Each structure stands twice: as structure tokens, then as C-alpha cells.
Amino acid sequence: MQQSSLPKAADGAKQWLSRAAAESRPEGPDAARQWRTRGLVAFGVVACYVLIAVVTALGFNQVYTASWMAGRIVWLFAPVGVLLAVAGLLRAAGWSVVGYVASVLIGEMIGTPIYTFQHDYLQARMDDPAFVQDWTPIQPAWWIALGLFIYITAAAAIVEWRELGRDASASTPDE
């Protein structure tokens, strides 16, 4: 009978999380400066997301993806950037803001033509009296934007985490 590897994976995850938490906690004489920098970056990320929501509400309320995301789910994206800043991944926190803006723009550019094609196709089929409508057009722009945001933010966090790990291992003396 084969033993499950799930407990081993859980132990590995616990070790990785405890190591990550210990590495992300600044200590020593520069700790106050590092925490202040992290707090300022977190504040900057929140300010950027608030600015994005306000500008979208005032100027881009006719753009589907931008208005939908700013009005409904931007507040799910902002905590990701704040958590990255608090964890010490400062560039990744900035990339989360850039990723949000880029993902909204690309989602709108790709998703709206797809929706328009579906809508026009459905309208053309509605002229046929034998046609039974069993589907409705979907707007994939915000799904595209969500996936792209996750990809950009995760990639930035992984790259910065690896760079920080390389810097930490290079600065520790060999025993």
C-alpha cells in the first residue's frame, strides 16, 4: 500500500512559509527604515488604486472593462499590492498597479471585439424564424484582465523573491 505524499507536502509548505516569514521580517539597525519604506510603498499602492478608481469613475465610465472593474473588483486587487509591499516585495507591489492598468486596457482591446462579434452573430441568426436562442453573448474582457493581472503580479513577485533570495545567499558567509 502506497503512503500518501500529502503530509510530506504539507510539512514542506509549512517549512517554506516559516522560512519566508522569517526572511521577510527586517531586523537590525535598518529595520525601522525598511518598515517605513514598506509602509510608504503600501500607501503609494493604495493611493494609486484610489486614483485609478476616481479617474475611471470621472472619465472612463463609458469603457466597459475599466468601469466594471473599477466599480466592482478594484478593491480585490489593491490588497494584493499592499501585501506584496508589506512582505518586502516592493517592485512587485508597483508591478501590481502597472499590471492592473495594463490588464484593463488589454482586456478591453481583446474582449470588446469578441463580444461585438458574438452579438452581431446572434443578431444575424435572430432573423431566421427557426432559430432557437440557447446562448447569450458574454463579455470576456474582465476575465482576460483578471488573468493578465494575476500573471503579471505573480511573475513580478516570483522574480523579485528569487532576486532577494539570491542577494541574501550571496551576503551570508560560507561556514
Q: Can you describe what's shown?
A:
The protein has 6 helices and no strands. The chain has helices at residues 6-24, 31-59, 64-72, 74-86, 90-126, 141-171. Helix 3 (64-72) crosses helix 5 (90-126). The radius of gyration is 22 Å and the shape is elongated.
Task: Summarize, please.
By secondary structure, the chain is mostly helical. The protein is built from six helices and no strands.
Quick tags:
mainly alpha, 175 residues
Number of strands: 0
Percent strand: under 5%
Question: Rg to the nearest angstrom?
Answer: 22 Å
Name the shape in a single word. elongated
Unreliable stretches covering 5 or more consecutive residues: none
Task: Round the mean pLDDT to the nearest integer and report it.
Answer: 82
Biggest sheet architecture? none
Task: List SSEs in N-to-C order.
Answer: HHHHHH
Our measurement of the CA-to-CA distance between the termini, rounded to an integer number of angstroms, reads 42 Å
The portion of residues assigned to helices is: over 70%
User: By helix and strand content, what is the structural category?
Assistant: mainly alpha
- How many alpha or pi helices? 6
